[in-house]
Write a structure and sequence with these properties.
By secondary structure, the chain is an alpha/beta fold. Helix content is about 45%, strand content about 25%. It has a seven-stranded mixed sheet, with helices on both faces. The chain is globular and about 40 Å long. The N and C termini lie far apart (about 40 Å). The structure holds S-adenosyl-L-homocysteine, 3,4-dihydroxybenzoic acid (DHB) and magnesium ion. The site of magnesium ion (MG) has 4 residues, from loops.
Length: about 220
C-alpha cells in the first residue's frame, strides 16, 4: 500500500466515474498559475460532494473556505435551477481567482463569494436572518472548525447535511495528546458531532491523489 498506488487508483476512478470537465480542469490550472496552494478537494471527492448535494435535494449551499472555487464549482453544478451557493473566503486574492473560475464555469449567477474572516461572515449571515442552508461544507482553517460547526447548526434546518473536510490528517486525529491546533480543532469537531443531540454523524478515512485524510458527515435531526 503506497501513495503511488492511491494515486493510480484515483486516476482510474476519475477516468471511469468522474470523467473530464474542462471548467474544473481550467480552474485547477488557473489556481496553479496564481500560486494558490493545491489543497482543493480531489476530483473524486468533488464528485462525492456533488452527489451528496443531489442526494439531499440541496438548493441552498454554504461553503466555508473557497480557495480557487474548485469545490464551489462542483457544488454549484449539482444544484437545480434557482439554487445558490454562498462561499466564504478570508483571502482577497483567493476570492478573486475563485470568482474568475466560477464565472468561466458559468455559475457566477448562482454563487456569491464573501471575503473576510469566515466567523464574521457567518455572524453576518445570521444577522441577515439568512434562510437555512440545505448543505454546509466546512473546509477553512481547521482550528476554527468547532466555531464554524456551532454557527452552521444555527444556519441549518432539520435534514441539513454538514460535511467537514480534513478531519483525519494522516491519522493525527487519533492522537489525544496532540497540541497541534488543527488536530485539536478537528478532534473537537468530531466530539461535537458525536455528542450533539441535534446531529447524527460519522466520518470516513480516505486515501487518494491528495494523500491520507478524511471527512466527517452529519445530518441535523429534530
Ligand atoms: N474548499 C476548497 C479548498 C479550501 S482551502 C476546495 O476544495 O476547492 C481553505 C481555504 O480557507 C483557503 O483558501 C484559506 O484562505 C481559507 N481560510 C483560511 N482561514 C480562513 C478564515 N478564517 N476565514 C475564511 N477563510 C479562511
Ligand atoms: C489543508 C487544507 C485543506 O482544506 C485541505 O484539503 C488540505 C490541506 C492545509 O491547510 O494544509
Ligand atoms: Mg480541505
Amino acid at each position: 500500500m503506497s501513495e503511488k498506488l492511491w494515486k493510480t487508483v484515483d486516476g482510474y476512478l476519475v477516468d471511469t466515474l468522474v470523467g473530464a470537465s474542462p471548467a474544473l480542469d481550467d480552474a485547477l490550472k488557473a489556481n496553479a498559475a496564481a500560486d494558490l496552494p493545491s489543497i482543493d478537494v480531489s476530483p473524486t471527492q468533488g464528485k462525492l460532494l456533488y452527489l451528496l448535494a443531489k442526494m439531499c435535494g440541496a438548493r441552498r449551499v454554504l461553503e466555508v473556505g473557497t480557495l480557487g472555487g474548485y469545490s464551489t464549482i462542483w457544488l454549484a453544478s449539482s444544484l437545480p435551477g434557482g439554487g445558490s451557493v454562498v462561499t466564504l473566503e478570508l483571502e482577497e486574492k483567493h476570492a478573486a481567482v475563485a470568482r474568475k473560475n466560477i464565472e468561466h464555469a458559468g455559475f457566477s449567477g448562482m454563487v456569491e463569494v464573501r471575503v473576510g474572516p469566515a466567523i464574521e461572515s457567518l455572524a453576518q449571515l445570521q444577522q441577515e436572518k439568512a434562510e437555512p442552508f440545505d448543505l454546509i461544507f466546512i473546509d477553512a482553517d481547521k482550528e476554527s472548525g468547532p466555531a464554524y460547526l456551532e454557527v452552521a447548526l444555527r444556519l441549518s434546518h432539520v435534514g441539513t447535511v454538514i460535511i467537514v473536510d480534513n478531519v483525519i490528517r494522516d491519522g493525527a486525529v487519533a492522537d489525544a495528546a496532540s497540541t497541534d491546533p488543527r488536530v485539536v480543532g478537528s478532534r473537537r469537531v468530531l466530539e461535537m458531532m458525536g455528542s450533539n443531540s441535534r446531529l447524527e454523524a460519522s466520518a470516513l478515512q480516505t486515501v487518494g491523489s491528495k494523500g491520507y485524510d478524511g471527512f466527517a458527515i452529519g445530518i441535523v435531526r429534530p
